[in-house]
Amino acid sequence: MNRTAWIDASCGVAGDMLLAALLDAGASLPGVRAAVDAVVPGEVSVTTAEVLRAGIRATSVRVSPERRDRVHRTWRDVRTLLTGAALHEAVRDGALAVFARLAGAEARVHGVGVDDVHFHEVGAWDSIADVVGVCAALHDLRVTEPTASPVAVGSGRVVTAHGELPVPVPAVAELAAGWDVFAGGEGELATPTGMALVTALAHACRPLPHMRLEATGVGAGERDVPGRPNVVRVLLGTAAAERSTAEDAVVLEANVDDLDPRVWPSVLTALLNAGASDAWLVPILMKKGRPAHTLCVLSPPGRAEVLRAGMFRLTSTLGVRERPVRKTALRRGWAQVDVLGTRLPVKVGCRDGRIVQAVPEFEHAAALAARLDLPVREVLDAAAAAAHATGLAPGAAVPSALAEAPPA
Predict the structure, then answer these.
(1) Tally of CB atoms within 10 A around 150
(2) Are residues 212 and 276 in the same domain?
(3) Which of 118, 227, 283, 297 is positioned for an S-S bond with 252, CB 3.0–4.6 A?
C-alpha cells in the first residue's frame, strides 16, 4: 500500500532533525547505518538519543566522524560515490536528487560550475549521512508520497564559513524558490541540507493531508529554545491514494446515426486502448425518428486531445462536444482466488482501509467456462464464493498484498 509522510517544518528543518524524526517514527537505525556505510564506508557513525526540546520528547541524531582526516568533496565526487554504492534504486535516486538541488543552489550563490562546487554544504561527511540516511529511512518506511508544510527559515544574521550572512542564508533562499516559507523565529531555522531534502523529496507544499494516521516521529535540533520546540515532526499514514479520490476528467460525446453497428465494439476497444478511462454507447432517436447512438468517452484531461482525434478517425461524426466533470474513484487492486482448479483474478475496490466490493474478472471467468464447457454464470458464482471465503468481502479489511495491475 502507498504511504504518505507529512513533514511538519513549521519550526524549521535540518538534515539531522528530519533523519531523527523518521527514525522516531519507526525507520530502522541499522538500515540507515548500512546505507550510509555503503556510500562512505568507515567514515561516520550514526547514533540516537532521547532528549527534551521545550518540554517535548524528541529523538536526536548524532553523526560523528570515525577518522580525523576530513575529506572535502565536490558534487562530482559525491555523485560518483552514490552511483557506485550498493544502494536500493529508490535510495540512490532520492539522494542524487537532493544533492543535485543542493549543488545547483550553491553553484548559483557562488558563481561556479555545478560540478566544481567544493565546500562544506555538499562534500562533508555529515551532509552525506543526513541525505542518504533520510532517503534510506523513507524507503524503509515504504513512503511513496511525502509532502511537507511551509518551512520556517528564521530571521536575523548568522556567522558562516563565508562570513556573516542574512537569514535565510543565500543557499536556503535559492532552494526555497517555489516553496511557502515564513520567518518563524530568530536565528537560522532551516539549513541548506534540510531545505534541499524537503524541496527535492516532498511532492507538494501543503497543509496536513487527509490520511489515516499510523505513527508520529519527532526529531530534535541541537539547541533547546525556551517556548519554541526546536523540532521537526513527521506524521506517517495511509496515503490519499488508498482512499476514494476526486479528480478532474473530461466527457467527450458525439451523436452518430450512420455507422455500421458491427463497428462499435472495435471503436470502444480502440478508445480504451488509447487511454480513455471508460467508453460507452447510449441509444438515442435523432431527427426524423432515425435511430442512433451517442458515443461517450471519459478522458483524463491530458488525453482529451488524443481521444477526440480518435473519435473523428474511428467514426463518421462531424463534431465532438465536451464538458469537464469530477470523477471519484475507489482505490483498486487485484487478488487471485482458486476456482475449479484455476487461479482467477478478482478486482477489489477499497475505501478507508475496507473492501467496498470484490468482483471476479469476467474475461478470465469466461475463458475458464469455455475451457471446462460450463455456463459462465456458474464460474462467476464459484469465483464470487471463493473470494468471499478468502476474506475478500465488503466491509473486510484490505489485504496487504493486493497487486497494482491484473495478471496478464
Answers:
(1) 17
(2) no
(3) 297
For residues 362, 363, 369, 371, the Cα torsion angle rounded to the nearest 10 degrees is: -160
- Could you give the CA distance from residue 12 to residue 227 in angstroms, rounded to a whole number? 14
CATH for 288: 3.30.70.1380
Whether residue 159 is found in the same domain as residue 87: yes
Are 202 and 311 part of one and the same domain? no
pLDDT tens per residue across span 176-213: 988 999 999 989 999 999 999 999 999 888 888 878 89
CA 272/CA 279 separation, integer angstroms:
7
pTM for the whole structure: 0.61
Angle 296-298-300 from CA coordinates, rounded to 5°: 150
Cα–Cα dist 91/93, whole Å: 6
Helix (H) or strand (E) segment spanning residue 143: strand 143-148
- 87: cell is 544502494
Nearest to 74 by CA among 103, 96, 110: 103
Structural domain harbouring 203: 3-242
The SS3 assignment for 158 reads strand
- Residues 123-157 have pLDDT tens digits of 577 889 999 999 999 999 999 889 999 999 999 98
In this structure, are residues 239 and 2 in contact, taking their beta carbons and an 8 Å threshold?
Answer: yes
**Residue bearing the bigger pLDDT, 372 or 1:** 372
**8-state DSSP, 262:** G
Q: What whole-number distance in Å separates Cα of residue 358 and Cα of residue 350?
A: 9
- The count of other CB atoms within 10 Å of the CB of residue 300 is 15
DSSP string, 292-360: EEEEEEEE-GGGHHHHHHHHHHHS--S--EEEEEEEEE-EEEEEEEEETTEEEEEEEEEETTEEEEEEE
Is the model's pLDDT at 91 over the cut of 90? Answer: yes
Q: Confirm if 237 and 213 have CB atoms less than 8 A apart.
A: yes
